[in-house]
Amino acid sequence: MIPFNKPCAVGSEESAIRAAIENSKLSGNGPFTKKCTDWLEGRLQCKKALLTPSCTAALEMTAMLTETKDGDEVIMPSYTFVSTANAFVIRGGKIRFVDVTPDTMNIDPQQIEAAITDRTKSIVVVHYAGIACDMDAIMEIAHKYGLWVIEDAAQALLSTYKGKPLGTIGHFGTFSFHDTKNYTCGEGGALIINDPTALERAEIIQEKGTNRQQFKKGMVDKYTWRDIGSSFLLSELNAAYLHVQFQHANTINENRLQTWHHYKRELQPVENITIPHVPENCMHNAHMFYIKMKDVTERNQLMDYLNKHAIMTATHYVPLHSSHAGRKYGKFIGSDTNTTTESERLLRLPLYYGIGEEAVDYVVKTIHTYYQT
Ligand SMILES: *Cc1c(COP(=O)(O)O)cnc(C)c1O
Predict the structure, then answer these.
(1) Angle at 278 between CA 297 and CA 112, to 5 degrees
(2) Least crowded by CB within 10 Å, which of 4, 206, 222, 334?
(3) How many structural domains comprise the chain?
(4) Is the same domain home to 97 and 224?
């Protein structure tokens, strides 16, 4: 059986966790957290990175940092994970879903402007499959209307847009280290702060609303309750595991890219399926390889066929605007030309660190057999 995903492990995670135990520091913001945030700040060339318990938590922090209040409107694609929306809904935000473009499944910048009202506060973009949104167009609209831009870069660590790392272009970027992502620690995330005015407040929100970080730096003589906040720190045990993955990031990235290009090379010639499009000037991190079939029926048939041949595949998001909570807390603006139909055609193939060429060969051969090519 070829699984759809296997959480990444390179081998030395266990000794790193043991080292964290020996440090006698298991709570957040210890030496392993520092190693991880230093790595992120160096690699992404960003001002500040904070480790969080999840990407969901990092998104919740951005909703607090942008002071999202009752009735504020937040624009995002409907084709995304629930957390993208939920983080703002729990602050009282109203979600304004817009369509995606069929080539990348990313938010269509042309639909954003029509969704803007005097209640609009933020635009949340999702770099689907680790492939960049059209950030120039999005940032231009945001500047024109004075809106915050949050990049849900959960899938996009080490991807770039015009040479700039994803997560560093908007005011905030969020990453996920869930075990389905390229770099993992089980559950974990990061918040990237690109707007320097938000920095001090972000550290307070992360530390339960206290100025504990200023206290630790010797800037105040006791720490007190300053603001709203929550517990948004990652345990050192998780940070130790994550640090090992960062140390091996190039190896992991190259291995995934190899698999991705293997799929691309072998599946591009199959007439009945569409493979992902990578726009010019975008470098991606091989987070996902998906194919699209004619329609939902054909997609489900191929999925069953692969399953019968011991290959696990996965569909993806059910558009949020069609869900129970999505209808309650949000509204689709403009016409749903692509979101529903394109999401129903999509199937994700097995892709994980160390999958091996044989397994990938078997997957492509099985697809070729299905289409009798
Ligand atoms: C994985 C993912 C999330 C959630 O990440 P967690 O770390 O599990 O909270 C949010 N948004 C997108 C686009 C994701 O792919």
Answers:
(1) 80
(2) 222
(3) 2
(4) yes
Same-domain pairing of 159 and 56: yes
Measure 353 CA to ligand 1 centroid, in angstroms. Answer: 19
- Segment 200-220 shows an average pLDDT of 96
Q: Print the domain residue range for 153.
A: 13-247
Do 218 and 259 share a domain, yes or no?
no
Let me know whether 317 and 237 are in one domain.
no
Half-sphere exposure of 61 (CA within 13 A, CB side): 38
Residues 96 and 210 both lie in one domain: yes
Q: State the average pLDDT over residues 139-154.
A: 98
SS3 193: strand
Who lines ligand 1 at CB under 6 A?
54-56, 80-81, 83-84, 126, 152, 154-155, 176, 178, 189
The best mutation among 52, 59, 60, 83 to test binding of ligand 1, ranked by most ligand atoms within 8 Å of the C-beta, falls on 83
Structure confidence by residue, pLDDT tens digits, 281-325: 999 999 999 999 999 999 999 999 999 999 999 999 999 999 999
Say which residue the tokens 């938000």 belong to.
Answer: 198
Closest CA to ligand 1's atom 5? 55
Question: Does 230 lie in the same domain as 258?
Answer: no
- Cα(324) to centroid of ligand 1, in Å? 20
**125 and 209 within one domain:** yes
Residue 97's Cα: distance from chain center in Å? 18
How confident is the model at residue 373, as a pLDDT? 84
End-to-end CA separation in angstroms for the chain: 24
